[in-house]
Design brief:
Blueprint (H helix, E strand, L loop, with lengths): L2 H13 L3 E4 L3 E4 L15 E4 L1 E5 L2 H12 L4 H15 L9 E8 L4 E7 L22 H5 L10 H12 L4 H14 L5 H13 L5 H7 L15 H20 L1 H12 L12 H5 L4 E3 L2 E5 L2 E5 L6 H15 L9 H21 L10 H4 L2 H8 L34 E8 L5 E9 L6 E3 L2 E3 L11 E2 L2 E2 L17 E5 L2 E7 L6 H13 L5 H6 L3 E4 L2 E5 L9 H9 L4 E4 L6 E6 L2 E6 L6 E5 L1
Parallel strand pairs: 19-20
Antiparallel strand pairs: 1-2, 3-22, 4-10, 4-23, 5-6, 5-11, 6-7, 8-9, 9-16, 10-11, 12-13, 14-15, 16-17, 17-21, 18-19, 21-22
Helix pairs in contact: 2-3, 3-5, 3-6, 5-9, 6-9, 9-10, 12-13, 12-15, 12-16
């Protein structure tokens, strides 16, 4: 297949600005295919010595109760994620994967635990290539059994509990079991997400239809939604821990469900018993870099989002030594250019380190950041910047991967009374993942985060699929330090746009000293190689329209979009933590005074 034709074909899905009407006054943008709340105006905030921010009120309430019972931030994460598995299954769950940054106050150390989904040991580089040499469409791939990676969430929660938990494992799952069994009132976002899954495609999944579209209709807004099969699964895991999920009855039933979905004329290689039994959580070295007087720490590869954030911040710092306000065109011009350069590098150099050595130190070194900043012009935008040549890349001759879609992700942050801090991002990849259900759990389609082609013009792509590999992720939990102490924990869902949201939020918090409420609710700007994307319905079309016009004069090709960010942050000031939840979703802040 001609490489240029392949490139155009591959990116047409992710970058198409198509919005579609959904129930309950929703619209969804394919560049960030998640359900967002267009009517919500109030921003949930809270302050105290202990604070929880999650994407759903039931999860935030449950996690706070865990803290009240003497649990640590890790116990609260387990409670929140298991409840989200029940009430926000479109975004994350035990059938998906996650990254965790955890500050342990006892050891005064920051930990990075990788629970990313893993490709089967039988995965092949041509998994997404058809017999005629063309690649699968994203729609085809996302519903394929071969898109399902070995789930890592349960293993990550278990590992985190062994290291940092205090309450009994079972105690942290009790609330999720109760909600799954007794039911919860469906939120508008939950119902919109089911409708979006219908539009993406569910005909391949009778299990999805049976659970989320009984009798072919959406669940009633006025009746409790129950998932008794998931309640039974959570009960088994509460009793048997991670071993139950990866080697016990749950594992056996998962494999049976996958085999039952095979087609006789076109069997697909998918997860095996050995893949489940051999899954491992990896402890990574947190990726940190100074930004002005702060130390910003995030997740290393296979996260590309973390690299992009640190690069974007570094370039922006070099170019804006005298800080600009958001009423200044230069602020937005330099931010957009910094993010565009960060995107160019992550799509080229980042993959699973077990395959190619990521030139990580070179990518975030001061000399390289300054070199990249010198390429940016104050008087015009630069379209499609090329990746740089960081130290350590001399022996690598790679091709860049086109940007991907995604959006089925959640982020939560927790600080407990003792000062332990968790920043956690979990995902099933797109809305309801593969739209396949096993034992009440949504199964991910995370392997579509790999490049669909393994090479272009004979040059390999770093993020190519392969046995036991973990796909590059945009997920990037962040914890920021001042004088050796954590002062900010933040993160967001949003697929490829995650580092754009977080970079902007960090600058608003650290440089501009905006309160958390303002940080999560102000307008978004994002970038593509040749476009600068502004948020529909924001100040860009009103009070700040002059900035938009000035950006156009600098050559920015302006496009409009809806963004379904889900920023969750906590910020420490004068010994008190202050939290805020993005109003674009249904998040809630809970706290202990």
């Amino acid at each position: 297949m001609n490489p240029l034709i392949w490139w155009i074909w591959q990116i047409r899905w992710p970058i198409t600005l198509l919005t579609i009407s959904l129930p309950i006054n929703a619209q969804v943008n394919w560049t960030s295919p998640e359900s967002l709340d267009l009517t919500r105006k109030r921003v949930s905030t809270g302050s105290g010595r202990a604070v929880v921010v999650t994407a759903n009120p039931l999860a935030s309430d449950a996690a706070l109760m865990t803290l009240k019972q003497g649990g640590t931030a890790m116990d609260a994460v387990i409670t929140a994620q298991t409840v989200l598995t029940v009430v926000e299954p479109q975004s994350s769950g035990l059938g998906g994967g996650a990254f965790l940054l955890y500050w342990d106050v006892k050891t005064k150390r920051l930990y990075a635990l990788d629970g990313r989904e893993t490709a089967s040991s039988h995965a092949k580089e041509d998994a997404w290539v058809k017999s005629d040499g063309s690649v699968f469409s994203w729609l085809e791939a996302s519903r394929s059994l071969s898109a399902i990676g070995v789930p890592g969430t349960t293993a990550l929660l278990w590992e985190g509990h062994q290291r940092f938990g205090r309450l009994p494992w079972r105690a942290n799952l009790n609330k999720s079991i109760k909600i799954a069994k007794d039911g919860f009132m469906p939120s508008p976002r939950f119902l919109r997400s089911i409708s979006l899954a219908q539009l993406i495609g569910i005909n391949h999944s009778s299990s999805f239809k049976a659970l989320y579209l009984p009798d072919g209709s959406l669940p009633s807004q006025k009746a409790l939604f129950r998932n008794p099969i998931l309640a039974a699964t959570l009960t088994r895991i509460a009793e048997g821990g991670a071993n139950e999920f990866y080697r016990g009855e749950t594992a056996k039933k998962l494999l049976i469900d996958l085999n039952l979905n095979q087609t006789d004329n076109n069997p697909v290689q998918t997860i095996t018993a050995d893949d489940l039994a051999n899954y491992q959580v990896y402890e990574r070295e947190p990726l940190c870099r100074s930004y002005r007087s702060w130390r910003v720490c995030t997740f290393p590869p296979p996260s590309g989002g973390g690299v992009s954030i640190l690069q974007s911040l570094g370039i922006f710092e070099v170019l804006s030594e005298s800080k600009f306000s958001e009423t200044n065109t230069w602020h937005w011009h330099l931010l957009a250019e910094s993010m565009r350069f960060g995107d160019a590098d992550r799509s080229h150099w980042v993959g699973d380190p077990i395959d190619w050595p990521v030139p990580l130190n070179g990518l975030i070194s001061d000399s390289y950041i300054k070199q990249r900043a010198q390429l940016i012009k104050f008087d015009k935008t630069i379209f499609s910047p090329l990746p740089g040549e960081p130290k350590g890349s001399e022996s690598l001759d790679l091709a860049s991967q086109p940007r991907t879609t995604g959006g089925g992700t959640t982020h939560l942050v927790v600080v407990d009374i003792e000062g332990n801090v968790a920043s956690y991002t979990g995902s099933v990849e797109t809305v309801f993942g593969s739209r396949r259900i096993s034992e009440g759990m949504v199964l991910n389609n995370q392997l579509t985060d790999f490049s669909f082609a393994s090479s272009i013009s004979g040059k390999p792509i770093a993020n190519r699929i392969g046995p036991k590999k973990r796909p590059m992720s945009s997920m990037a939990p962040v914890i920021v330090f001042k004088n050796g102490r954590p002062v900010l924990a933040i993160g967001s869902p949003g697929g490829w746009l995650i580092p754009h949201y977080i970079t902007t939020a960090l600058i608003r918090t650290l440089d501009l000293s905006l309160p958390p409420k303002e940080v999560v609710s102000r307008k978004h700007l994002s970038v593509r190689p040749n476009e600068t994307v502004l948020e529909i319905g924001s100040e860009w079309s009103g009070s700040h329209s002059y900035i938009r016009k000035s950006l156009k004069r600098l050559g920015h090709q302006i496009k409009w979009s809806r963004f379904s960010s889900g920023l969750a942050l906590i910020y420490r000031q004068k010994g008190i933590w202050h939290g805020a939840a993005d109003p674009r979703r249904e998040g809630k802040v809970t706290s202990l005074p």
